[in-house]
Amino acid sequence: MTFLENERTVLEDLLPGLDRALASSSLETWETPGNPGIGEFRKAGGPALLVPTEHGGKGADLLTAVRVQRAVASRSPSLAVATTMHHFSTASLVETAAHGNGMEWLLLAAIAQDNLILASGFAEGRTGQGILDPAITARVEGDKVWLTGSKKPCSLARSMNLLTTSVALPDEDGTPRLAVALVPAEAPGLEVRPFWKSPVLAGAESDEVVLTDVEVPADLLVRTGVTADGELDRLNTVGFVWFEALMTASYLGAASALVERTLAGPRVPAAIRAQAGTAAESVALMLEGLAAEAAGGEIGQDVLARALVCRYAAQDAIGRVLELCVEALGGMAFVSSGDVAYLNSACRALAFHPPSRTRMAEPLAEYFTGGPLRIPS
């Protein structure tokens, strides 16, 4: 079996035609603002990937989704990074539905039937801010809630049908607790503004979403059990595991695109080609092991800790892949096409996604010595 053949076969089985569409044009085509990648994702039924089959979806598990994201990213890193946010939000909704009032299942069915896309407005991308610190504030009057604030960057900002965002809402005793709100893209008071200025991953539609007194219906608010000290409830634990696994798979896919070019290089020594392939496949094996564990039972703190270990180890392994491939492909490959430089830059962005290695150093050290795993705020 050739490199990436398994992943691309899985992608074709679940989202027919998407890989062929992405392979039919250059990398540059899919990485520019306003590119047709999200349209091709919709056409192939991508929004339904994680929706259970009984609600009209594809019913993919984490292992399958990891393979799909790697395959997509090998053609378009921007599309994989952007759609990871949709899949992360969908997976969280599936988990919510297992303990909800039934409205979540109706929404999941609508995602599958109408190819709805979810954007994520969780607290990401702000230096020094924890992922559990909502960027959106809430004004509560009785049963009504209005949201104000902005999320930047917010992938899929211009293609989303719904924005999922974290918000702090008072509990019965007045204690602020994390909640998740679903905001229709056409809601009065929601505005999308330009934000992303880098040419790297510019196709992910990572602009600013601004909310100004946007009313959210009560049935589109999901309260969680996240405590003030950062211990996670099951919903957020599951969400974190999916986020880390799918985002890591996406950047592995981008690195795999460089490995694929290296393997095809007639003048690249066999030892270098084998090293590059081995480094990439080692990350794939870590991710598949994590996915198998997640599918085998309760997703708790131990699984989340392993997801974080997998992600940080992947950052190191992908760094080795980049060093090997960029040097092996040589200066002519670097200057004759923008692909090598672009993929090298795009893969570095895995380090920017939360929670950063630095912020998690102390919590992981405490976990490894018997303490609970906490996400710092």
From TrEMBL:
Keywords: FAD, Flavoprotein, Oxidoreductase. The keyword Oxidoreductase applies. GO terms for molecular function: acyl-CoA dehydrogenase activity; flavin adenine dinucleotide binding. InterPro entries: Acyl-CoA_Oxase/DH_mid-dom_sf, AcylCo_DH-like_C, AcylCoA_DH/ox_N_sf, AcylCoA_DH/oxidase_NM_dom_sf. This is Oxidoreductase.
